TrEMBL record:
Record EC number: 3.5.1.2
Record key words, sorted: Acetylation, Hydrolase
Binding site for substrate: S61, N113, E158, N165, Y189, Y241, V259
Name of the protein this chain belongs to: Glutaminase
Reaction equations catalysed: L-glutamine + H2O = L-glutamate + NH4(+)
Family under the similarity heading: Belongs to the glutaminase family.
HAMAP family, A to Z: Glutaminase (MF_00313)
Keyword Transferase: no
Superkingdom: Bacteria
Gene: glsA
GO molecular function, one term: glutaminase activity
Transmembrane segments: none
Amino acid sequence: MFSLLNTLVEKNKKYGREGKVASYIPALSEANPDELGIYVVDSRGKEYYSGDYNAKFTIQSISKIVSLILAIRDNGRENVFKKVDVEPTGMGFNSIVNLEASDSGKPYNPMINAGAIVTTSLIDGKDVNEKLEKILEFMRTVTNNDDISVNERVYLSEKETGNRNRALAYFMKSTGVLDGDVEEILDLYFKQCSIEVTARDLARFGAVLANDGVIPWTNEKFIPKDVCRIVKTIMVTCGMYDASGDFAVKVGIPAKSGVGGGILATVPRKFGIGIYGPSLDEKGNSIAGINIITDLANELDLSIF
Ligand code: GLU
């Protein structure tokens, strides 16, 4: 496996030059587009890696999986899906028009910004700090990494420039979909997006989901199996922005990407996969990341379909 990963990193690095690092959050524009790292954890917890697997980056949209799991844990699945649907949009992750167009007024799914702002608002806690601690604790457990924390520079950069997310949130407040203090909800959302991780952290989290919520290195049952199933299903239909259909056809693995350049993929009962490549394609997915996971899925026959 190590030599396969080395070969695939060398082969796919070049794609970094064909995309662009995100710049709408100014602090993200400092990433090095040539970096590419991959980390794989199998169902017994054995780990394989290559390239820039140790590079740190912010989790961004991959945190939407965490807020969905915690929202379900705190409220039950019926109550969560009263506020957010589970339908793909075919539109950008921060689209405003599709929020107004939705008949129910609910965001289409928890993997777009509007939907994640709703799931974040449903996490219980007395204030932003307590809720953030719950998110960080969850992340530390599924990554086996006590150092998981927020990158303050990215958080402040996003908070300063996140007006589109403000627009989405205030719109949802006006229609009654969002309850509570909008600025506080956004503050927590910006913080959760700015959690710093490596490809290794994402791979371990992916391995927990692949293992139906049982942590491979402790055997603890950490996430209920039915919640893992919901999350993985939504990852297939909505996890790779509006390229999710194409990704399902080409790769066929539940996955979630983020504009920080990360991809978390989870192959049921087999592997968790974490990828970092900050140069993005026009949909917002890591361009080298998509190419390397396509090759890996083909080599190991990983499609779930
Ligand atoms: N924090 C980013 C935003 O809300 C997350 C976007 C993403 O990774 O898709 O714009």
